[in-house]
Automatic annotation (TrEMBL):
Keywords: DNA-binding, Transcription, Transcription regulation. This is HTH-type transcriptional regulator MalT. One of its GO terms (molecular function) is DNA binding. It comes from Pseudogemmobacter humi. GO terms for biological process: regulation of DNA-templated transcription. The gene is malT.
Length: 252
């Protein structure tokens, strides 16, 4: 832990300066090995704002650029923030619905960038925004162990406090237009063609819930879920989740 303490002190000295994110990343790397580090700010009204990342090239384009085009609305971490959870640690494999790793969102965002596992620390900023510092491992490495998750949770309060002190009220997003909420996007996608229940079902499909999980949450039979899915696809003129995801992004 002495190495962590030394680098944490450097991060504290860098507060308010351009090198703070890199110093904080370096401190965390002394505790837990990871490949990717990224920090996004969410205020619930606009698209996510990238505060920092250590990626380059195509990976940066997917994780930072394409993510803000709409997939963030399906992100399990964003789902936690929207539900009011703004402290502790987010762990992708604990939060993801049972079919998440088969979704088109996972294939286009995580699989293409090689991300295997991800953990995030949320921090409440002035003005109501929430910043999330995420570290991720790529496919050549194992997922985060239970010991590593506990260690990340132990340092989360300090990391969150430093993030809040450094960024304060995050600077306004370059895009001043308000971003739609998930429910709004789903209704745009539905185009008055789907029933309320069908909209609910396709929203859960996009998030990564299996037919069995949807049935359990909505207290209906799995067969009924499949009928809703079939009818929704027919009304929308599509035949796959890939096409459903494309319609979703086009509706954001």
């Amino acid at each position: 832990m002495s190495d962590w303490n030394d680098h944490l002190a450097r991060a504290i000295r860098a507060l308010g300066r351009p090198g703070f994110p890199q110093a904080l990343e370096a401190a965390l790397a002394r505790l837990i090995p990871f490949r990717i580090c990224m920090i996004f700010s969410y205020d619930g009204r606009r698209r996510p704002q990238s505060l920092y990342h250590n990626m380059a090239g195509e990976v940066a384009g997917i994780v930072v650029g394409a993510y803000s085009d709409g997939p963030w609305l399906l992100d399990p971490f964003y789902g936690e923030i929207s539900a009011g959870r703004r402290s502790g640690v987010f762990h992708l494999r604990e939060l993801a619905p049972d079919g998440f790793f088969r979704t088109e969102y996972y294939q286009k965002h995580y699989r293409r960038t090689g991300i295997r596992d991800e953990m995030g620390i949320p921090a409440v900023l002035e003005g109501g925004a929430t910043a999330v510092l995420s570290i991720a491992r790529t496919l050549e490495a194992p997922g985060f162990s239970r010991t590593e998750r506990r260690l990340y949770a132990d340092v989360a309060p300090v990391v969150a406090a430093l993030m809040a002190a450094h960024w304060g009220e995050a600077r306004p997003s370059p895009d001043p237009t308000e971003a739609p909420q998930l429910e709004t996007v789903l209704h745009r996608l539905a185009r008055d063609l789907l029933t309320a229940r069908e909209v609910e079902v396709i929203g859960m499909i996009l998030k990564g819930y299996s037919a069995a999980a949807i049935a359990a949450r909505l207290e209906i039979s799995e067969g009924t879920v499949k009928v809703h899915r079939k009818n929704s696809y027919r009304k929308l003129g599509i035949s796959s989740q890939a096409e459903l995801f494309s319609l979703f992004i086009a509706s954001v």
